[in-house]
Amino acid sequence: xxxxxxxxxxxxxxxxxxxxxxxxxxxxxxxxxxxxxxxxxxxxxxxxxxxxxxxxxxxxxxxxxxxxxxxxxxxxxxxxxxxxxxxxxxxxxxxxxxxxxxxxxxxxxxxxxxxxxxxxxxxxxxxxxxxxxxxxxxxxxxxxxxxxxxxxxxxxxxxxxxxxxxxxxxxxxxxxxxxxxxxxxxxxxxxxxxxxxxxxxxxxxxxxxxxxxxxxxxxxxxxxxxxxxxxxxxxxxxxxxxxxxxxxxxxxxxxxxxxxxxxxxxxxxxxxxxxxxxxxxxxxxxxxxxxxxxxxxxxxxxxxxxxxxxxxxxxxxxxxxxxxxxxxxxxxxxxxxxxxxxxxxxxxxxxxxx
Length: 354
Prior knowledge:
It is a single chain. Helices cover 32% and strands 20% of the residues. The strands form 4 sheets. It has an 8-stranded mixed sheet, sandwiched between helices. It has a 3-stranded mixed sheet with strand order 1-2-3, with helices on one face. The protein is of the alpha/beta class. It is elongated and about 75 Å long. It has 10 helices and 15 strands. Helix 6 packs across helix 7.
């Protein structure tokens, strides 16, 4: 049997993508050497940084691709690290243009990405937990989902996703979002020392949000969720300025105080010409594990009241749940909470046409 050719090797490796940028390792010039010796193929693959956390993933995919070639019985893969010049070229290919791109494609008025800002007006209602689990529910339904933790002072999404100790890869000032549960995530948590408070005023907050768009390689997204901080302050206004087409989702709990503040957050969105696509009532009730009865620990009616005053619809109610160890704040599939988020995700997709 004739030996395979270099072109055949490169052709099968075109199907192997860098897990962070979702482009072929051949297209990204990561394959630097191919040696064919009878039934043995040796390939050198260059990664952007030494100690890349995705090294094993890439190595396994390359090996599987090579062993699928006819007559090849052994695949030898060596992993190297790019030079400074190679990293610059890699960053240029990520952006699809020169390395210093003036603006993010996501900020283009014609972007196909749908933006949904998640607001509550009040802290303590589980808004971030809702943002994270809704993102996961959308990803489980096959959408390409990004989440921006826009709560600059009180960032909590990395903890909820269980990735608080992971640092994003940075290639020539291009930040790769952390990928978890099928979702791309960026948070201020990744860029400040542990337990160090962020002490910024309004203009710096707006700049940070813009940086999250401009300096992060989000790739192609169907939906971007923005977890807003409580209240109706600078960050919410900056989001509305940056993303005039962004829609808003309001999170509340059944209590009257939470509902009152959620209404104010919704009214601010309406005043800035943003469409409110619905209300989610979190911690709506507790289901007894023995008898299955519902106990309304925080009362009833908050979500319906908010939806009525804002002339929008109730998307759903999320029951109280107890997290099991190892899941962070993401409800496992098959739980009543995950099922509720899945139903809300389907409703939401109809509302925003994704």
